[in-house]
Amino acid sequence: MVDDFIRNLQVGDDAISRWQAFHDRFKENEVTYEELRSASNSSRRMMNMFMSRCHSCEGFAVWIKDRIVWPAHSVKVEPHPDIPANLRDDFIEAADVVERSPRGSAAISRLMIQKLMVALGEKGENINDDIGSLVKKGLEVEIQQALDVVRVVGNNAVHPGEIDLKDDAPTAMALLQLINLVVERRISTQKRIAEMFGNLPPGALNGIAKRDAAKNVPSE
Would you say the C-alpha torsion 30, 31, 32, 34 has a positive or negative sign? Predict the structure, then answer.
């Protein structure tokens, strides 16, 4: 349609060439320029780029179409140092898009919980079943609740239900913080305890082993 419009313009070949060049640039780029010519000079005007000034602080903002690109506003949440290696890139991606696409970030968080189940000794096939299995093994109530929050909200991000995450960056950010909490409580804490226990004197370790073995001897 646009090509037909350009061909039917009742102007000179030079103007048609400029229109065609502009049209080609516009198809390739979100931001491009339009050439403005007069009898004495020529200039360029940017297209799809705008500036606004805040009435409160009088600061300026730069917009591309309908989104602010400057000042850049990036929320930083880093993955826990002990997060499993196969979750690190997912976490970084979810954190990177949390403001631009809260729903996408939440969907990635749900995927991370599924992978995390394997690191916690479960199958990683059904998150709900895996959480139930962990509960039977003595999972703390607050960690169970954190896992279920990420599971339920993440499910709604993939299959929209009662929770609408389209513009809810704070909730998507909270999911990442909950994942870090689970890693801290179920991986880091246990690793630190195991390291400290392993550093006990050999005599103490042998005494503990004998004590626990005695508990398991059936009474006659």
Answer: positive
Per the CB < 8 A criterion, the answer to whether 165 and 153 are in contact is yes
What is the tens place of the pLDDT at every residue in 26-37? 666 667 666 666
Nearest to 146 by CA among 194, 182, 112: 182
Contact 50, 16 (CB under 8 A): no
- Angle at which helix 102-119 crosses helix 127-136, to 10 degrees, equals 50
Task: Please give the pLDDT value at position 1.
Answer: 45
DSSP string for 75-115: ---PPPTTS-HHHHHHHHHHHHTTTT-HHHHHHHHHHHHHH
Q: Which residues contact 77 (CB under 8 A, 6 or more apart)?
A: 95, 98, 173, 176, 177, 180
Give the integer Cα–Cα distance in Å for 19 and 40: 20
Given a contact cutoff of 8 angstroms between Cβ atoms, the answer to whether 153 and 166 are in contact is: no
Is the sign of the CA dihedral 78, 79, 85, 86 positive or negative?
negative
